[in-house]
Prior knowledge:
Chain A is an alpha/beta fold.
Amino acid sequence: MIYFDNAATSWPKHPCVAEAMAYFLNNIGANPGRSGHRLAVESGRIVYNTREAVAELFNAPDPLRVVFGHNVTEALNLALQGLLRSGEHVITSSMEHNSMMRPLRSLEQKGIEVTVIQCSPEGFLDAEEVKKAIRSNTTMIALNHASNIVGTLLPIVEVGQIARDHDLLFLVDAAQSAGAYPIDVQQDCIDLLGFTGHKSLYGPMGTGGLIIGERVDVKKLKPIKTGGTGSESGAEKQPNFLPDMCESGTPNTVGLAGLCAAIQWVSEKGIDNIRTHEIALTQQLIDGLKDIPNVKVYGGLDANCQTATVSFNIIGMEPSEAGFRLDEEYEVLCRVGLHCTPVSHRTIGTYPVGTVRFGLGIFNTIDEVETALSAVRQLANGAKS
Amino acid sequence: MKNEYAVILVHSTSYALRIEKFFKNAGILCKLIPVPRHLSSDCGVCVRIAQSDSNAALETLETAQVEFDGIYNI
């Protein structure tokens, strides 16, 4: 079996992740930040250590401004719903996942103006177009770092500088890039970084969060949920300090224990080494697919300009049929269809049919790519064109 | 010798754990304990240190720029 669905969630995970989670469940188990006994403190320490690990990985100066949630979707909702107000204008791209687009479209109903910058058919964004779209009421630029269908990297460094020059907040959705590509929130001028734990950070599902930079006025931030935090228990009013104000309810401590171990593992492995491995496999995959008659590959076709996610179609075969046959006949597991991003598929010209997506990861090998290529070759040979 | 302690009250457990890290690096012995009821109605933890370490603790907190609510002898 070949697992090529790492863009949906990475698998397998290094055994240290499950070990850390089992250790927490078997030996600690208490509620962090609530009671004051030794196990509760130890549990809180796991959550805090995970905040530090996240802060260190992305060079965020203050671990207390790392807010945990269930996933990057929750993080983006917090940033967008929590900071944008009626009458304000936000700029985004035509390569966004619905985790960005849907909150923005619902905010549009509440009087927030949204400009979607059209990207190229390869999925690239021209930073100058973002600059041109800035208006007097623009307060935020919200961008996907890497496309979840073609892996294309958006120019976050250039856009970050534009945001800083115009005193705008810069929100980056790092769902597809966190752990797979180096990100430095200070150098890249990122004010809000949404990340997920279960993709390129190789942690468990149900973990993720938002890094909130110093330029974000916490007084303006409205939590998307309120409730118990273990702090200021005598007050019925929500606390007004980070991270508690945005973390009501018992956190996914077992998940965070796994995420902490995963981040340590990723750091030890080195993001640069992971990237080198993934570039080699991605280019091998792109070049191999390009050579197959009847196959159309999407994106920039240069592994240096994208993550390890590649979309293609076999001419004359629906993506759903290709995906099913890859699984049934060749045991190649991938994702087909629209991948929760209709706007990206419109951009690359594959809406409403979608694509077949191979999402590679650190555990994939040259041999696996070769085997999968041979499977696609056989399917394409038999397809009616 | 009688142990004389001081406690540093903080917003939440996250702050206490952050302070614990800085104290550890600075060589200040500390322990996270439940907040004494007479100091606050909070149900969380605070950082207990020896009273003799109070000045060193305050200096460390200032350098680290970690917010705290107050320091009290207990």
